[in-house]
Amino acid sequence: KPKNLDSFLYPSFHHLSAIQQEGLTIWDTARDASFISHPFLALGTADGPGLVYLNGLVGHHGKSGCQ
Q1: Over the range 15-52, which residues count as b (16 or more CB within 10 Å of their CB) and which as e?
Q2: Looking at 2-6, 51-55, 56-60, which range is the least confident one?
Q3: CA angle 35, 44, 22 (to 5 degrees)
Q4: What are the residues whose beta carbons fall under 8 Å from the beta carbon of 5, sequence distance 6 or more?
Q5: Which of 4, 6, 24, 43 registers the highest number of CB atoms within 10 A of its CB?
Q6: pLDDT tens-digit series, residues 21-43
């Protein structure tokens, strides 16, 4: 797991944002034509410990964790 989660996620979200704004040219061989796609992040998910890490919470092993 990365020490600084923001430094790990920021480049991915930055690239996704650029593709959303500019569009991503995709070649369709069945139609023999290209089209511009504007992808988006529909769902982000993780397991229990992963969500705690993503949200920046303490978790059940912390000093004042779940009781």
Answers
A1: eeeeeeeeeeeeeeeeeeeeeeeeeeeeeeeeeeeeeb
A2: 56-60
A3: 30
A4: 53, 54
A5: 24
A6: 999 999 999 999 999 999 888 76
pLDDT at position 14 is 92
At residue 60, the pLDDT reads: 64
* Residue 67, CB-side half-sphere exposure with 13 Å CA sphere: 2
- Pull the structure tokens for residue 21: 């704004």
Taking the C-alpha atoms of residue 62 and residue 65, their distance in angstroms, rounded to an integer, is 5
Furthest-apart CA pair in the chain: how many Å? 60
pLDDT at 37: 92
Cα pseudo-dihedral 34, 40, 41, 42, rounded to 10: -100
